[in-house]
Design a protein that fits this description.
2 domains; Growth Hormone, Chain: A; mainly alpha; 401 residues; 15 helices
Length: 401
């Protein structure tokens, strides 16, 4: 039985390109320093003495910067290629994390957060395009899952250590986050020297029409419901830690453990799960299942009593929601794109998540301020149900074409 278990993992990880592994190593180094974002809301409220609405506004500005960065990053990727943009985004983002740690007023923190996010998030379309470039049609979903594995293992390290560091000194979070960004850029330069990277820019051949992602109606419908899902999912990392601190009175260390548990579970389970599900059914059906699990997880925050077991159970629900939905979301946008417009498709997908980062913290903060956490969890459950219904209608539409 142990041999079968090992073979299962071996099959899940085999057949991926060397550069796909290198890109994932770079992502792992980068995300191992992810400490500022998961604790930013608590930092603003507890250390800088901002109101919950002001903290939500700061996180929304992070989202505004993400949208701008994703849009610019997509355009630059299709024009200049994915390599230089990744290096530049990592270095500039790292330096700006260091600068942000020295800002203490609502105005300077807001401005610093926006500029940081703009530079940092321009990395995503370039990175997504690079993964597609170095994968095959047969392993695209697993290539992105490998990258997500790196993200979430890094998240597990970052959130876990971040909780311990925050309990001692919040300012150190900015230094660790910034320096790991810069280190990731150095790893990229070392593992994939610029001279070894084949030019990823594709000139449009005569007779081939470049279809814009912004005119693909089916893709725009997909993006709309993805944004609704993302608005709900982000509360798991933005307002749920605040809920655990203010309502369930957990320590920063335990909150960090919960965030780390999410990453650990993804690291252990997702690649095997995707390997066994990929190609068996339409990916939209897996997305629907994942979104519905997330809706159930939000409801449990209302009904379950405060406690360690309840919190871990909710993390399990939200993690399986993520593992079922997100890998197949990546597969969907890749299937709609070509070599000539992949940066644009990647940018629009990234922008949908960035838009959710704008709306989620601000609306979450307002709902909590005027109706409490219970109203927020019910609202997120309802919105998740709408998203699941929308994906089902999209599934029927795609199936009929």
């Amino acid at each position: 039985m142990f041999t079968s278990f090992i073979q299962l993992y071996k099959k899940a990880y085999s057949g991926l390109s060397r550069n796909s592994w290198f890109l994932s190593i770079v992502m792992l180094v980068n995300r191992s320093g992810t400490m500022v974002v998961p604790f930013m809301s608590i930092y603003c409220i507890k250390q800088l003495h901002f109101s919950i609405v002001e903290a939500g506004t700061v996180m929304s500005l992070f989202g505004v910067g993400s949208i701008s960065g994703a849009f610019i990053g997509g355009k630059l990727t299709d024009k200049f290629g994915f390599y230089d943009l990744q290096v530049g985004a990592l270095i500039s983002g790292g330096l700006l994390f260091l600068v942000l740690g020295y800002q203490h007023t609502f105005l300077t923190v807001s401005i610093g957060t926006f500029i940081l996010s703009l530079c940092n998030e321009s990395f995503r379309p370039a990175n997504s395009t690079a993964i597609a470039h170095y994968s095959t049609p047969e392993n695209k979903t697993r290539s992105y899952s490998l990258n997500r594995l790196a993200v979430n293992l890094g998240w597990a390290v970052g959130a876990g250590l971040g909780g311990l560091i925050a309990a001692v000194n919040y300012h150190l979070l900015f230094w660790v986050d910034g320096l790991t960004n810069i280190t990731a850029a150095l790893f990229l330069l070392r593992l994939m020297p610029r001279s070894s990277v084949v030019n990823s820019i594709k000139k449009i051949e005569k007779g081939i029409v470049k279809i814009s992602a912004y005119k693909d109606r089916i893709y725009l419908v997909f993006i709309f419901f993805s944004t609704l899902f993302a608005m709900c999912f982000f509360q798991f990392f933005i307002m749920e830690p605040v809920f655990y601190k203010l309502q369930w009175h957990f320590s920063e260390s335990f909150i960090g453990f919960l965030m780390a548990l999410n990453g650990i579970l993804i690291g252990v389970v997702e690649m095997v799960l995707v390997h066994n599900l990929e190609g068996r059914r339409n990916g939209l059906l897996y997305i629907i299942t994942g979104v519905l699990m997330g809706a159930f997880g939000f409801v449990m925050l209302v009904f379950l009593p405060a406690g360690t077991v309840a919190a871990i159970f909710i993390v399990l629900l939200m993690t399986f929601s993520e593992m079922l939905a997100m890998p197949f979301m990546n597969t969907f946008w890749i299937s709609r794109s070509t070599d000539y417009n992949r940066g644009e498709y990647a940018a629009l997908y990234t922008m949908s998540w960035s838009a959710a980062q704008v709306v989620a913290p601000l609306t979450g903060g307002l709902i909590i301020a005027y109706g409490g956490f219970s109203l927020l969890w019910w609202a997120l459950c309802g919105l998740s149900m709408v998203a699941a219904g929308g994906y089902y209608l999209l599934y029927r539409l795609v199936k009929s074409l």
